[in-house]
């Protein structure tokens, strides 16, 4: 019985794959909303506060090609391109991390937009050693705090 079932399933698949595709006359041509040759642009909004020395503000960062209002757009795009494949460049510090209790200043940042076709909504501060390290890894996307 099992053999007959397998043969019947195989015969059904063969019959379906050989069947002609019939389009309804009212359907018209199929249009894709985004062409397959286009990708979502890498575009981020970087909002920085309390970083010191006039580096605060809201900046647009566009990559591929580099542009926008970010003061170091080309360097920032290059830094983001160095990210590790399969790792989220903007991931928060894991909740179970052990971090040094040091204070890196009042600087905060919020990054939103799209990177590598994925949405980004990440916040940054310098409240402990882990967060300071996380911030510093994104310089020059984020400014050197206090510089």
Fraction in beta strands: 15-25%
Number of helices: 3
How large, in whole angstroms, is the Cα Rg? 25 Å
For the secondary structure, the number of strands is 5
Gap from first CA to last CA: 77 Å
Described by strand count, sense and barrel closure, the largest sheet is: 5 strands, antiparallel
Order of helices and strands: HEEEHEEH
What's the mean pLDDT score?
80
Shape: globular
Write the layout of secondary structure elements.
Blueprint: H1 2-18, E1 42-49, E2 57-63, E3 67-68, H2 73-81, E4 108-115, E5 118-125, H3 129-136
Antiparallel strand pairs: 1-2, 1-4, 2-3, 4-5
Question: Could you walk me through the main structural features you see in this protein, from its secondary elements to its overall organization?
Answer:
- With 147 residues, this protein is an alpha+beta fold.
- The chain contains three helices and five strands.
- It has helices spanning 2-18, 73-81, 129-136; strands at 42-49, 57-63, 67-68, 108-115, 118-125.
- Strands 3-2-1-4-5 form a five-stranded antiparallel beta sheet, with helices on one face.
- The radius of gyration is 25 Å and the shape is globular.
């Amino acid at each position: 019985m099992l053999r007959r079932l397998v043969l019947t399933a195989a015969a059904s698949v063969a019959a379906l794959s050989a069947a002609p595709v019939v389009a309804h006359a009212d359907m018209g041509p199929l249009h894709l909303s985004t062409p397959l040759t286009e990708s979502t642009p890498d575009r981020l909004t970087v909002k920085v506060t309390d970083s010191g020395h006039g580096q605060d503000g809201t900046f647009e960062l566009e990559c591929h090609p580099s542009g926008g209002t970010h003061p170091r757009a080309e360097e920032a795009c290059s830094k983001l391109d160095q990210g590790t494949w399969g790792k989220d460049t903007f991931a928060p510090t894991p909740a179970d991390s052990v971090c040094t209790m040091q204070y890196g200043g009042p600087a905060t940042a919020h990054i939103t937009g799209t990177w590598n076709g994925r949405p980004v909504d990440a916040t940054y501060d310098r409240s402990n050693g882990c967060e300071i390290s996380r911030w510093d890894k994104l310089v020059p996307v984020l400014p050197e705090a206090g510089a």
